Amino acid sequence: MVLVLLGVIGGAIGTTLTRQQGFYRETAERLWSRESVRDAMEVLSADIRGMSVPDTVRLRADSAIEFFATIGSSVVCQTVGNDVGLPSHHSSGNTLSAFQVVPDTGDLAVLYAQLASGAMDWEQHRISGFASRSLASSCPQSSGLSSQSELDAAERGFVVTLASPLRGVLRAGAPIRFLRRARYSLYRASDGDWYLGYRRCNTVGASSCGVIQPVSGSYRAYSPDPRATGLLFEYFDATGQRLGALDSPLGLARVDITARSESTAQTAAGARGSSISDSATLAVATRNGGR
What we know:
Blueprint: H1 2-49, E1 57-60, E2 64-75, E3 78-80, E4 83-86, E5 90-91, E6 94-95, E7 98-99, E8 108-114, E9 120-134, H2 135-138, H3 148-152, E10 156-162, E11 175-188, E12 194-200, E13 213-219, E14 231-236, E15 254-266, E16 272-285
Antiparallel strand pairs: 1-2, 2-7, 2-11, 3-4, 4-10, 5-6, 8-9, 8-11, 9-10, 11-12, 12-13, 14-15, 15-16
């Protein structure tokens, strides 16, 4: 009788534990599915909103977008030949230099300069070098953008070297932005699942991108049906009219992003169980000011 009772109790406990394990697995999958959608929206909205102007878009497809994203900004302290000195991150409590990632030779610098005609316009140059330098050499106190206390504290600024000579005149305090060409797309990985991927692309010329890196997922498989695909980009002008593939990118004012995650819960035995999915749609307005 004791053995029988122990067997019944043990079986009941085992069944309860199995059910609890299944519940926790499914809950974890649901949380992961929602997190995948949230990650996609956060990354894509930040970079798309950071586009300087719509003509930086190089590819508009239903499941992929390629554009120049802003990765940093600063102000000019001084110029020496092709070298442009930048201040430290902070000056008198103000943030003057801010970078998501450190610019390098694959990026662009866009500077607001005074042309020979006297007009102000943006110049675009490839970067041939970017380095941290002492504030005394990159942004002296005479520029008005550094303080003696920063110099005494041995703060460091930056120097960006341009690949081509400046056409206009850069004055102290002129804004400068750093751009990186990137492509986001829905792709199928070696495990058979679909993910949001990121590629860094060449700065100028025909598009040539590096190895794709996963950002988030997994998502539903690609489908030409906009109601079923895992990742969808839709493009609109300022009046809300949808832009076609042949329409000028200068008319781009909004990008709608739809992400549909999908994963499969596992049973206690490790078999594939029920499908778990989540979705979200976000409208992102682009910055339409001049570069």
